[in-house]
Each structure stands twice: as structure tokens, then as C-alpha cells.
From TrEMBL:
GO CC annotation terms, alphabetical: endoplasmic reticulum membrane
Protein family according to the UniProt entry: Belongs to the jagunal family.
Source organism, top-level taxon: Eukaryota
GO biological process: endoplasmic reticulum organization; vesicle-mediated transport
Record keywords, A-Z: Endoplasmic reticulum, Membrane, Transmembrane, Transmembrane helix
Keyword Endoplasmic reticulum attached: yes
Membrane association type: Multi-pass membrane protein
Keyword Membrane listed: yes
Localization: Endoplasmic reticulum membrane
Residue numbers spanned by region Disordered: 1-21
InterPro entries the record matches: Jagunal
Protein's name in the database: Uncharacterized protein
Organism: Picea sitchensis
């Protein structure tokens, strides 16, 4: 290195001697927040995915038992799965449009889940009209209780995921257009 500097006839410019390494290696607080929010959002996606899988199992059990499936429950599950795909894609690509779509569709899915609860389907109303044996009813009652817990867990995860997504959107840098 000294041979190159001597051959050029000068000294090395200031700032390239390595003393500014600690300054150059700092990461702006905004980028740290983005990384933290992306990790938090990923964890909330895992929780929401578990809730959606449980919703699919509940709908499958009702279908297997020969019962009529509530369309609101099926619609809520389908929209929730779509929201997860949009959210994960938006999180990976840092795409604000997909993250906004995720917030909208997951909020709709959560609202539909709450509407499903409100209609009385989770209180065992459809079980009282059954002509099946007692074992089938007890299984559906058990799943009914778990379905209520799933909806409440989904609401809690939604309450956490929306502010995290908003924080992520605020801290993300805008895409440059050339």
C-alpha cells in the first residue's frame, strides 16, 4: 500500500485509513426497526396460519359429520388464507401495497370470524338439532369450544399484527423509480 502511495507522489487521503470503520458500520435506527417489525410480523403470520389451519380442520369436521357448513366461516377462512399469502409476499419483498392489502383482508377475515361467533354457531346451536349419536355431538362440542378459542386468538393476533404492520410501513424506505 505504501508503495502505491509513494508511486503516486502523495499521501493517502484522510478518511480512508480505517479510523472511520465504526462510523461506517453503524446501522440507522430506522433499518433496525424495519428488521424487528419484519420479524414480529413473521411471528404473527405463524400464529395466524395456525388459526387458519384450525379453521380448516373445523370446517372439514363439520363437513365429515354431514352438517351444513356456515358460509361465513368458510369465507372467513378463505379470506384469511389469502391475507396471509399477500402479507408474507409483502413482507418478503417490502411491498407496501401488499402489506396494506394484508391489513385490509385480514381485518375482514377477523370481522367475519367474529360475525360467525355472533350468529350462535359457536354456542352449539347446530348441535342441538342433530340426530347423530352422543359421541359425535361431544366431539363437535369439543371442537366448538376450540373454535371459540381460535377466533379469540385470531382477534388477539390481529390486534398485534396491525400496529406492527403500520410501524413497518412507516419505517420502510420508498421504492425508487428511475
Amino acid at each position: 500500500m505504501q508503495q502505491r502511495n509513494q508511486s503516486r507522489g502523495g499521501t493517502r487521503p484522510s478518511g480512508t485509513d480505517g479510523f472511520d470503520y465504526s462510523y461506517r458500520m453503524t446501522v440507522d435506527q430506522r433499518y433496525r426497526k424495519v428488521a424487528q417489525r419484519r420479524a414480529q410480523l413473521y411471528r404473527s403470520f405463524l400464529c395466524q396460519a395456525a388459526c387458519q389451519v384450525w379453521g380448516i380442520l373445523w370446517v372439514a369436521l363439520v363437513i365429515l359429520k354431514g352438517r351444513e357448513v356456515d358460509r361465513i366461516a368458510m369465507l372467513s377462512t378463505a379470506i384469511g388464507i389469502f391475507a396471509l399469502f399477500a402479507g408474507e409476499t409483502g413482507r418478503r419483498w417490502s411491498n407496501p401495497k401488499l402489506l396494506n392489502l394484508y391489513m385490509l383482508t385480514s381485518s375482514i377475515a377477523t370481522t367475519l370470524s367474529l360475525k360467525h361467533c355472533d350468529l350462535g354457531h359457536l354456542s352449539g346451536q347446530f348441535i342441538s338439532n342433530s340426530n347423530q349419536d352422543q359421541d359425535t355431538d361431544s366431539l363437535l362440542v369439543l371442537f366448538d369450544g376450540f373454535e371459540t378459542c381460535r377466533v379469540l386468538a385470531g382477534v388477539l393476533v390481529q390486534i398485534i399484527a396491525v400496529p406492527v404492520t403500520i410501524s413497518l410501513l412507516k419505517n420502510m424506505s420508498a421504492k425508487r423509480t428511475s
